[in-house]
Design goal:
- By secondary structure, chain A is an alpha/beta fold.
- Chain A is built from eight helices and ten strands.
- Chain A has a single domain, classed as 3-Layer(aba) Sandwich (Rossmann fold).
- In chain A, helix 3 packs antiparallel against helix 4 and helix 4 packs parallel to helix 5.
- The longest helix of chain A is centred in the C-terminal third of the chain and has 14 residues.
- Chain A is globular.
- Chain B has one domain.
- Chain B has a two-stranded antiparallel ribbon with strand order 1-2.
- Chain B is globular.
- Classes of the chains: A alpha/beta (233), B mainly alpha (268).
- Chain A: InterPro entries: AAA+_ATPase, ABC_transporter-like_ATP-bd, ABC_transporter-like_CS, P-loop_NTPase.
Chain lengths: 233, 268
């Protein structure tokens, strides 16, 4: 039996008096694309940061490959933040070189190919790129890591529809769904639905449903959007 | 890998460093031109400049870490598949290199100022300071490596304190920084007490590098009046290789503890 790649057991997170997550338990065992879906403030970002080892849970345990998650789990996990997290003083080329030199799992060729196909100027400083291009570069750098787990926090947030479509296509084309687990959080389901293999519905810091899209269709005859309406309403 | 991190830290801090260098140049030029007429002000500014050097590493490390969080680059930085000691030591290496450039620049500036002081006329004071100042200048040059070493030790310890306070503020919220400051003061107090024990001195006082007695005699004989020389306590202590080794070990152990906290407990 394959051990679960990511295992969350009774995970809770509190910020002072505010509860962000309550008793989250699930296991991600199969490769593919997982959608963490829920309204704003449902705890999606906190959940992803805890899975990346960038936040500690107040209660419960998180394991990746049967080891407790810490910051050093970044050897197996690439995390994409919703925020602009690139070094604005570097050019795109410098940023790619930096990642290539610092991350042993980084494929420079893959990154440069993606950047070229997206027509992004490599000699431009990150701070001089448009918002859409900054988002593209950020995603290129994440997708160029050959790691078993990719966590993307709202990769489409704040972008116009054309850019969103473009970015989504880039993500789907460059994730190895046979080998990698991609967990992406979003509060807008319709765009990502065709690409999802599994869904995790969240509301008020709790996980309401964790199922494969196939199961949803077979057992309930529901699409992800329909299931979301039922579960989150 | 480490060099790529160092290069990134250099790019990030260049502007800050150059501003510091420019400000110091203005201050040195001011002191140089005003030293004959506004002695108290010059002395005051001189003291401030020395303190700035000691605190440079502390301030630049804090500035760099705060910037990572403020600009959200910490999301990428913390997710780099690199052990904490490499991430943090890259920051320390750049901060310390800049500190060394500044301190050497400052030492040269003081040398030039002492030379000017010798050339200045003290007409009306009735005392000729030229010989004493010449001896002072020679002594300053002879002792300058030790001055750099001592200021560097203080700067490194403060740099470690900055790292500890910042990392701890990301471990315990919301008042981790305050707890870290208290721990730093308490640990410093404890360390001073340990250093004063006979046991510690026995362990560390081997291979004298700088004979404090000799230096004191030189200072006393040449720069002070005979009566003052007798009364004056020996302020320059002997420096032993054992003490240097102990300090280095201490710094490494504390650094290791900070990197452990960073890797295992720190949060975004």
């Amino acid at each position: 039996m394959t051990p679960p790649l990511i295992k969350l057991n009774q995970v809770s997170k509190k910020y002072l008096n505010q509860t962000a997550l309550t008793n989250i338990t699930f296991q991600l065992t199969k490769s593919g694309i997982y959608g963490v879906i829920g309204p704003n403030g449902s705890g999606k970002t906190t959940l992803l940061k805890i899975m990346a080892g960038l936040l500690r849970s107040s209660k419960g345990t998180v394991e990746i490959m049967e080891k407790p998650v810490t910051r050093l789990s970044s050897q197996h996990i690439a995390f994409l933040s919703e925020a602009d997290s690139l070094y604005s003083f570097q050019t795109v080329n410098q940023m790619v070189d930096f990642c290539h030199n610092v991350m042993p799992d980084f494929s420079k060729d893959k990154a440069l190919n993606m950047i070229q196909s997206l027509n992004i100027e490599k000699d431009k400083k990150i701070k001089h790129l448009s918002k859409g291009n900054r988002a593209r570069v950020k995603i290129v750098l994440t997708l160029s890591r050959q790691v078993p787990v990719l966590l993307m926090d709202e990769p489409l947030s704040g972008l116009d529809p054309l850019v969103r479509e473009d970015i989504l296509r880039m993500i789907v084309m460059n994730v190895d769904v046979e080998e990698q687990i991609l967990v992406l959080s979003t509060h807008e389901v319709s765009e990502v639905e065709p690409f999802l293999d599994h869904v995790i519905f969240m509301k008020n810091g709790t996980c309401l449903l964790e199922k494969s899209v196939e199961q949803l269709r077979e057992e309930k005859g529901q699409s992800v959007v329909e299931a979301m309406r039922e579960v989150l309403s | 890998m480490w060099l790529a991190l160092v290069k990134k830290e250099w790019q990030e801090s260049t502007f800050r460093f150059l501003v510091c260098l420019a400000l110091l140049t203005i201050v040195y030029v001011f002191i140089y031109t005003m030293m004959a007429t506004a002695t108290p002000l010059v002395v005051f500014i001189g003291v401030v400049v020395v303190l700035l050097h000691v605190f440079y590493l502390f301030l630049t490390l804090l500035a760099s870490l705060i910037k990572e969080w403020k600009e959200h680059t910490s999301h990428l930085w913390m997710n780099l598949p690199v052990p904490g000691w490499k991430l943090l030591s890259a920051k320390v290496a750049i901060g310390f290199s800049q500190f060394m450039i500044l301190i050497i620049y400052g030492m040269v500036a003081v040398d030039i100022m002492l030379q000017k002081l010798i050339n200045l006329s003290f007409a009306g004071s009735g005392i000729d300071y030229t010989e004493s100042l010449n001896i002072g200048l020679n002594l300053y040059r002879e002792l300058s490596p030790w001055i750099v070493l001592m200021i560097s030790q203080g700067a490194l310890q403060l740099g470690l304190a900055a790292l500890f306070i910042f990392v701890f503020s990301k471990v315990i919220r919301p008042f981790g920084w305050l707890i870290a400051i208290i721990i730093t003061f308490a640990a410093n107090h404890l360390l001073s007490a340990v250093k004063n024990t006979e046991g510690y001195q026995t362990i560390t006082q081997w291979v004298p590098l700088l004979d404090g007695q000799q230096v004191h005699e030189k200072v006393a004989i040449h720069l002070l009046q005979p009566v003052e020389a007798e009364l004056n306590e020996q302020i320059i202590q002997t420096i032993y290789l054992g003490q240097v080794v102990a300090e280095v070990l201490f710094i490494l152990v504390v650094f290791w503890m900070i990197t452990w906290l960073f890797d295992q407990k720190a949060e975004l």
